[in-house]
Structure formats: structure tokens, C-alpha cells
User: What shape does this take?
Amino acid sequence: MNNQGRPTAAGEASSSSFETYTGNKGLRLEEPLIFELDNPGATGVDLDEPEGYEPKLGAFERKARIGLPGMSEPDVMRHYVRLSRKNYSIDAGLYPLGSCTMKHNPRLNEKMARLPGFADVHPLQPQKTVQGALELMDTLAHWLKELTGMPAVAMSPKAGAHGELCGMMAIRAALVARGEGDKRTRILVPESAHGTNPATAALLQYKVDAIPATADGRVDLAAFKAKLGPDVAAIMLTNPNTCGLFERDIIEIADAVHAAGAYFYCDGANFNAIVGRVRPGDLGVDAMHINLHKTFSTPHGGGGPGAGPVVLSEALAPFAPLPYVVHGADGFRLVETVGEAKADGSHPFGRMVAFHGQMGMFVRAMAYMMSHGSDGLRQVAEDAVLNANYVLASLKDYLSAPFEGPCMHEALFDDRFLKGTGVETLDFAKAMIDEGYHPMTMYFPLVVHGALLIEPTETESKHTLDQFIGTLKHLAQAAKGNDKSRFTGAPHFAPRHRLDETLAARNPVLRWQAETPKQAAE
Assistant: This one.
């Protein structure tokens, strides 16, 4: 057999224990901190000293180096490229984070977002010079309203939690307008809601009142109705919820909320599971944010950029924040002042951001909608639910599912299958890194002990899902086979091994400092 070249099958590559001079192991590169690469005097660009330059700034004159590392442009580029190779991404493989909807971002979206008229637009340009951008915002807003069955949408919120804040501020403004702002102080939040929901309510000084879940993972209808009263401002409900289940009593919940004089806020983070299939407006929803980076494929993670438009019911539409786009005889324009809005019949609660939203995200979402069409978006939801149920059905005899029956867009498991093995949810997830996978969401939702939440989205093929499913079966069997060392020490093959998470939380090192000679000697 020819023993040169690549191994003939996965797992056949031999490993050597010798130490390399560089610390690198093949293409697994050992990368120092950028401050440790400092070469004083090196720079990526040389600038002539300007004429008439006065280096003194009085009391602010710098006495020492600024503290940034000196590096040439090639060194900076190589440093960040080497770091990027340590990262996992949706472009590298399946990203099974539940509740986060890490779906593929088509490159067509990127091409459209880089068109000069969109990529180079500036928020302070005269509005007559950005008519195309305003028309795109208006068109995207139209389709968001069509898909949700809602009459109004606020486009400016920058992300999901920001959208939650927007929707709840519109609810508060509506309550104030009818003289009940001080009277209604309580927000009902199911235990199966997203974690940002109670945080948003608390930020607005509301009292959060939790609603328990039933044994089948849905809102306890009787407990919910018992908590309704004249001091309730709204319910914040996630549907489908974070157990991956559709709240089948949602219309009855909406009717009860409205009968009590309160409003219904729906967390739309999981809209990808029902887009084109169900319109939230038809279910009695008053406000719902839409994560464009979840449902409409724009990039997710890395701190942004994000976009979380909020659709509003007829009762809340007048209180939508500034700015918003209107279309008149002279083309498109932005309504940016309270005076303009009131002349238009609106009563905005204010602004969420300095400008108008995130144009790059708007373009990507619009490209995604137009390339799929209404039938394609419906298929997105169907395929997302199909993939999640395929994972659930394939793993139910190896992992343990807390609820009977099919799921929606994500498959939820608990840690009962690990009982008696000495392996915990965290160990199991870390072992997935050794297999080349980013772990799924762990320990969430809190209503399930040791939760493992998997959302494959619609973009993963059966071949990819089969390999992922096979990996989890293999790990489950290994855990039950008393192969504990494989898990408690995991990850073994990652560039960095497991941290002492307690120490890292109690004594974080957030700032790099050069070693002193004494430290170096120690």
C-alpha cells in the first residue's frame, strides 16, 4: 500500500509526539498575541510630517510610547489571517446553535450589498440623492408587513434585543396615551421565552412575572390566565418557543391579553420556522421584532452589524419611532421630527438610533426575499422544520428528548442519557470540538435540565446532517461506554484546551501587560 500522501480515510492519520521548533503542528499554527509581535519602529505606512506641526499639547503632551504594537502591513495581515483559521464559521461547516439560526448567507446578497449606490451611501446625504436606498427600505418594509400581516413596521432597530426594546416602548407609549402608564406595571414572561425578554421588561422598569411551562413544554394556560389583571401591561411570548415548539394556544392567549386591556409582544427570533406559513398578525400579535440575520440570512455573529425591524399592530402603529419612510408626489422622504410625524397623524415615542438603520442588512434581506419569492420563503420554513425533525427522530434513541412528538425549527434534548456516565452536558459539547463541530446551544432553555438545543436550519443537506447525527450517536455511545477521559479532558485537538471557567470568571485577565524581568525569570 502506498503510505505517502494523505490518509485513505478519516481518522487514519498518524500523530507524532515530538516538539517542533516553531510550536506549530503542520497547519495548526501557534499564534502569539499581537502585542507580543511588537517590533518598535515598524509601521504599515509612512507619512510625511506636516508643515507647521507643533508636537506639544500642553498638559496632554505624550511622555511615552502610545502602547500599540509596531508591525508592517504583511505582518498585521498574516496575524489576523492566522487567527481566523482558529475560528469556526457557517462557511466552514454545520453550525448547530439552537435559538440562534446560523444559516447560510448567499453570496448574491454580498454582491448586492457591495453595489456602490448601497455600500457608499451616507446617512447625511441629501434625500434626493438616495432615492434608490429609500425605495429599497420602503419595499423591504412592505414585504415585512405582508409576511407578518401587520400594518406598520419600524425599520431602525439594530438587532433582536433592540427590537424588543422598541416594541415594548411602543406599548408603553400606547398605555401612557390612554392614561394607564402608571397603572400597568407588570409584564408576563413565559419560562420558555428568550432570555432577553425579561431583561427588556426590567430595563423599562416593569415588574417581570414568570409563567410556568406545562409538561409538554408550552405555556401553562391556566397559570397565565390566573396572572392576568388590571396592572398587566403586556405578555412577552416567544413563538415558536425556545423548546422548539409552537404555542398552540396562542390565539386564546392573545384574546385573553386583549380582554384584560394589555398588549401582546411576540419575540420573532424564531420566525424562520413559520415564515410564509403563519402570519403573526392573524394570531393577535401587537408587536414583534424580526431578526433579519436569522430569518432573512444576513450575517449573524461577531458583534454585528445587525437589524431587528419591529412590526406593529394598528393599535401600536401611531407610536412607531422615528425615522420612517413615506412616499409622496416628490418621491421618497424620511419623516425625522416629531412635528412632521404629528402632522402625519402619528405620535412617535422618539428615536431608537441616530440615523435610519443598517443599509447593508436591508439590502441583503431584500436580495434574499427577491431570490426566493413567496413560494421559496414558504419552503424555507418547511425545510427548516423538516431538518430539525430529522435530527430529532434520528437521535431520540441515543440522546434523550424531554418532550414527546415533533418539533418546529430546533430539536431539544436533555442530559438524562448521560446519567451515571460521569459525563456532563459541557463535557459532551467540548468533545464535539474534537470532532470538528461547533457545539450546539447548551443549558438553554432553562426549563430543561442540561439542555442541548440543535437548530440545523434549512440550508443543510441530508449528507451533512447524517454525518452530524452519526457523530452525536458515536459520542453518546462512547459516554455510555465509560470512555470518560475522552470527555472530561476535551477538547484535546483544539488550539487551546479547556479553560478553568470558574477562575476565568472570578479573575479575568482582560488587559495584556509585558512581563517584567522578575516574572520572566519565574
User: Anything to note?
Assistant: Residues 33 and 167 are 42 Å apart (CA to CA). The mean pLDDT is 91. The first helix runs from residue 73 to 84.
